[in-house]
Amino acid sequence: MTKARPFSVAITLATLLLPALAAAQAKDVVVGNISAMTGPTSGTHMMCQSGSRDYLNYLNETQGGIAGKSGKVKTRYLAYDSQYVATKAKDGFARLLDQGMVLWTQCASAHSDALISDYETAKVPLVTGSQGIASLFSDWAYGNYHSGIANMIRTWMLWQKAEWEKAGKPGGTLVLGTITTDEPFVPLALWEIDTFAKEQGIKLVKETFPKGTTDAAPQLLRLKDAGVRAIYVVASASGAVVALKSAKALNLNIPMTQCAAATLGDVIALGGPELAEGYQGEYFYEPMSKDPAKGGSAGLQLARDLWARNHPKETPNDMYVNGVLSGMVIAEGIRLALETTPPDKLTGEAIKKGLDQVKGFEGQGLTRPITYVKDDHIGSKQVRYWVVKKGFVEPVSDWMATTTYRIPKK
Amino acid sequence: MLVISGMMNGAIYGLVALGFVLVYKASAVLNFAQGYMLLFGAYLFWFFRVTVGLPLVLAMIAAVAAGFAGGALIERLTLRRLIGQPLISMVTVTIFLSLVLEGLVSMIWGTYPLQHVAAFPESTIRLGKMVLTTQSLIAFGLALLAAGALIVFFRFTRIGLAMRGVAEGHQIMQSMGISVRRILNVSWGLAGVAATVGGILLGSTLGFQLGMSHIGLLAIPAAFIGGLESPEGAILGGLLIGLIESIVSGYVGNAAGVPAAFVVLILTMLVRPYGFFGLERIERV
Amino acid sequence: MSRIPFYPPSGVYSDSYRKDMRIVKTGKQRLMAIAGLVFLAALPFIPGLNAPYHLRLLIGIGIAVIVALGLNILTGYCGQLNVGQSAFMMVGAFTSGMLNAYWGWPFWASVIPGGLAAAGVGVIFGIPSVRLKGLYLALTTLGAQIILTWIALYGVTVTSAGFTVEPVRLGGIVFNTPQKFYYVALAFTLGMALAAKNLMRSRLGRAFIAIRDNDRAAEGMGIDIFKYKLLAFAICTFYAGIGGALLVHYMMWAQLESFTLQDSVWYVAMIIVGGLGSIEGTIFGVIFITVLKELVLVVGPMAQETLSFLPIGAASGMMLVFIGSVAILFGVLEPRGMAHRWSLIKSFYRLWPFGY
User: Fold this and answer.
1) First-last CA distance in chain B
2) Of A190, A246, B186, C179, whose CB count within 10 A is highest?
3) By the CB < 8 Å criterion, does A81 face chain C?
4) Domain-by-domain residue ranges, chain B?
5) Residue B6 near chain A (CB below 8 Å)
6) Residues in contact with A397: Cβ distance below 8 Å, sequence separation at least 6, in sequence order
């Protein structure tokens, strides 16, 4: 029975030594990633992480790193598993800082909020493809897309309103519905939405069903009784599958749209192409779920190649493209910083200066032009709606400007 | 309609709750890993169906058999060594077991959801104004079938009776010439089977992904309200919980169903501390 | 729980109960205790150990120790299972955080109300313990977790979104870095641990133990079971509330995600691994589990790069399997918890080389 003790001692020692070991190598630009690598959210987080990691490694391998006028650097990608808990994310941030991180990226909106004070004090800029609200407030955060989580449904409502007006305003007033799970991000996504609906003259009916159950029929029935014209689904992919199944069982026939908490690709994988047929969703980049036969931008082709090279046995997913795009923005920021700063002086501040100069960057056609100006690090602020057809997605709207509502700071 | 959809959902709760009851009956342990056993069972089915490419029925049989073996193996490797130790340390072991199972799943299949597999025909049946999916009907039928089989098993078979005895006390049964080890082994195996069946059903509804294990928590009240010792109680408890959730969600909204189910439960337990079908224990000082 | 008696060196006698119950019995023990305190106090200045990451881990351990101590008083001493501890922590966290963020109360004024609010809620959920026992009682506390989380998510708008909280201040010092907050956490942890140790060797602690061992018999001895059970719930959740209040002022951010059912289950695991009904055991258990969990968070991502041929996420999965197996192995080898091993080691040291 005495065996147990040396064992635990060894483990304790091992963790204490780890940071020392990892800090030993230097000189490369250290890019940190903090996301959930275990637990239920890890699927999408890992996709996103692999995308940026694979892209930066690809630059290291094929071009020897990132080059600017004053020199060339390689990047080193370090990750920490936050298990989607803000406390752990903060621990991870401290750890990555110890290891020389000068720039970081993540996938979970919760972390960016809790970590604001940390990355502002440490002067380490954040590049993210998530819809966190914090990126709006911090001078050190750079998004590549949306004006924040509360704008997902707002933008969708405006789109629906435009379509409804085009159709000649049937019914007199526009009635829209939203069905959500009880996941923690949902209240943020629906922040003050009733006020917005009133301003727009839209009647919005809201329903919620608990995460993990297999049935959303009661909620959908109430939406149907309210006479909604379309339904917005604020849930992760498994919630969306439940909603779709229930809608099918009820023979609902009301168009449904997925919010950006999950991609259409996730829903196709999880529920099967048959169930997802006709489901709509939003992307701020060109998704990998697009039919490869129909081609795509150079950026999408690159993402597909990277996937095939690094993960040959697995099914591709859209969040990977999101990660690749974050990697591209990171590389562009470093490149611009290298125009004026020599590689050995690449601090977080220097890279921030590089990011501030990003202008009209399209990620090889993956997204609409990203330009960062003072007080606006949101990115393209454009989104496009897609629909599932035979297991692939195709665009159902043109690129649209997103709304720019800001959740008050406190 | 609310009633029907709640019952269908409740049937799956009931199946998962059965797993809790099976383990509790034999070893008086609340198995925190039940949800993860379900996850593992579901992925096993996916493996036999997609990777091996077996026909549907064969894949199910293989998965269920593997689920039994898996459950029995878990007992053999971990809980077997804890016979006679405080019960609470067995409970902890099940907590850690859930880590191992989640880890195994992500090690073998990765963390990203697997490709969809339709285990059951995805057609709908209309009964007047109501619409039912074949899937939920099958789930419903399976849950009832499983409960019925277990009731018969516990009442009328030698090993089933021995299991009930083992729950009363390991030493007494041991001295009566019944192998506690074998009984525990079989009951964990059966819990594995219940988990696998639940996993297949849930996987074909929710998709195959790590979040599936969450149902393990949602089903706990079902196991309690029926009484932890009673298979029929588990199924009825599942249906009841499903019903409460669906009706409260339907009329109150805001996902109030789950907390409401708990409020009802706590109040119920104050009146009937051992659930509706549990064994009342008379304590002596 | 069987106890290994303490064997004092010859020449040290306890001629009264008071002496027998002392925490520090010999001069050597006093010396070691002082040395330990000095080491802990000097830690932020010891190179190699004072990286912010290490200190953050230690602060995390400190807060978890406070929360787990409360749980051990309820579960280990009084025998009432609680699988909703992190929800009570949340009550304390949000109470203290909102008092601070919306009414401007400083940490020192809001930490006790945080603890009291948690205790109040805890007592309400403790009422069913009059009739419920064992695993059935676990259901009530599980219900507390679900219901309280639901209230935080839908009942109160601020708690659903999360909000910023001011750091701890004392005089002119702002405890906003790990180096500084470390001392706040250290002071609270030591104070709360000492309080727990003392409470548990008083009449109260003995009443709890009597209830745990056999509540009918305890009642026969004139202990008001209902009152003491509720008291145990109050103490347990008070500790949770204090831990929660510390956490939000340390993070300077209050959010729902830090208080999940998973966390509650982990607290139970910590006290069982450490040793039920043991204050030292609680500390060991927290350290053991925290270090194991940290291994997943650190080594998993590091292995991911080298194991890229495996499916995405497989490396972290491997770490889960590893720590899960280590913990199971530990549970199998040491079912009575680390505190049991600790007392075996102490008596071995004391009696060596004639340990018979």
Assistant:
1) 51
2) A246
3) yes
4) 2-271
5) yes
6) A159, A384, A385
DSSP per-residue codes, C220-287: HTT--HHHHHHHHHHHHHHHHHHHHHHHHHHHTEE-GGGS-HHHHHHHHHHHHHH-TT-HHHHHHHHH
Give the Cα separation of B54 and B64 in Å (integer). Answer: 14
**Domains: count for chain C:** 1
Domain edges within chain A: 10-21+28-146+300-381, 151-293+384-401
Cα separation values, C17 from A155, C21, C202, C218, C304, Å: 74, 6, 12, 22, 58
Query: Would you tell me which CATH number, out of the four given (3.40.50.720, 3.40.50.300, 3.90.1150.10, 3.40.50.2300), belongs to the domain A151-293+384-401?
Result: 3.40.50.2300
| CA–CA dist A307, A78 (Å, integer) | 20
CA–CA gap between residue A168 and residue C6 (Å, rounded): 87
- For A80, the 3-state DSSP assignment is strand
Average pLDDT over residues A201-209: 90
Same fold across A10-21+28-146+300-381 and A151-293+384-401 = yes
Query: A231: which strand partners?
Result: A177, A256
pLDDT in tens, A32-58: 999 888 777 788 888 889 999 999 999
What angle separates helix A298-310 from helix A42-63, to the nearest 10 degrees?
100
| Whole-structure pTM value | 0.84
Range(s) of the domain holding residue C264: 46-275
CATH class (in words) of the domain with range A10-21+28-146+300-381: alpha beta
- Quick check: is C184 in a domain? yes
Going by pLDDT thresholds of 50, 70 and 90, the confidence category of residue B211 is confident
Residue A101 φ/ψ, nearest 5 degrees: -65, 135
Distance CA(C239)–CA(C228), nearest Å, equals: 16
> Does the structure show a pLDDT above 70 at B212?
yes
All residues of chain A having their beta carbon less than 8 Å from the beta carbon of residue B113 are: 43, 237-238, 266, 269-270
**Predicted-complex ipTM score:** 0.79
Confidence of residue C8 (pLDDT cuts 50, 70, 90): low
Neighboring chain B residues of C138 at a CB cutoff of 8 Å: 30
Residue C70 lies in a domain: yes
Provide the H-helix boundaries in chain C: 17-20, 27-42, 52-71, 85-103, 107-126, 134-150, 157-161, 178-200, 203-213, 215-220, 225-251, 261-274, 279-306, 314-333, 338-351
- The matching CATH number, chosen from 1.10.357, 1.25.40, 1.10.3210, 1.10.3470, for B2-271 is 1.10.3470
- How far away is chain B from the Cα of A46, in angstroms, using its nearest Cα? 8
Please list the residues that pair with A106 across neighbouring strands. A34, A128
Rounded Cα gap, residues B48 and A91, in angstroms: 41
Query: What part of B 97-136 touches A (C-beta under 8 Å)?
Result: 102-103, 106, 110-118, 122, 124, 131-133, 136
Query: Is there a domain that residue C201 lies in?
Result: yes
| The amino acid at A331 | A
Element (H, E) at B180: helix B180-206
Q: Taking CA atoms, what residue in B is nearest to A218?
A: B250
A183 shares contact with chain B (CB less than 8 Å) = no
User: C315 to chain A: nearest residue by CA?
Assistant: A37
Contact B71, B18 (CB under 8 A): no
pLDDT, tens only, B126-160: 666 666 677 777 778 877 887 788 778 878 888 77
Q: Distance between CA A191 and CA A136 in Å, rounded? A: 15
Other CB atoms within a 10 A radius of the CB of residue C27 amount to 9
Is B32 in the C-facing interface, judged by CB distances under 8 Å?
A: yes
* Amino acid at residue number A205: V
Mutate to test the interface with C, among A41, A45, A91 (most CBs of C within 10 A): A91
Q: Which residues pair with C208 in a beta bridge?
A: none
| Inside any domain, residue C334 | no
Query: Is any Cβ of chain A less than 8 angstroms from the Cβ of B82?
Result: no
